[in-house]
Amino acid sequence: MAKKKAKDMLLVGSKTKEALKGKGFNVSSDTLDAMNEYVYWLVDQAQKKCAANGRKTIRPYDILAE
User: What are the start-end ranges of the H helices in 1-66?
Assistant: First the structure.
């Protein structure tokens, strides 16, 4: 089976872990990878919404849930 090419990390690991631990929670080793995948998905959705509206500039409302 072919390996997937690793995506660049879009999150600052130490800051993200710090925010997640907040009130005494632990963070598993694969949590940042899962969050990074979600951020890539958000970017993809924002690009699609922007293109569907005939724009080339991504706006906050392209990213935020409706």
Answer: 13-21, 31-52, 60-63
The verdict on pTM exceeding 0.85 is no
Per-position pLDDT tens, the chain of length 66: 556 677 899 999 999 999 999 889 999 989 999 999 999 999 999 999 999 999 999 999 999 865
- Residue given tokens 């130490």 in the structure block: 14
Query: Where in the chain are the domains?
Result: 26-63
Q: Quick one: tokens of 30? A: 């694969």
Q: 26 CB contacts (<8 Å, ≥6 apart)?
A: none
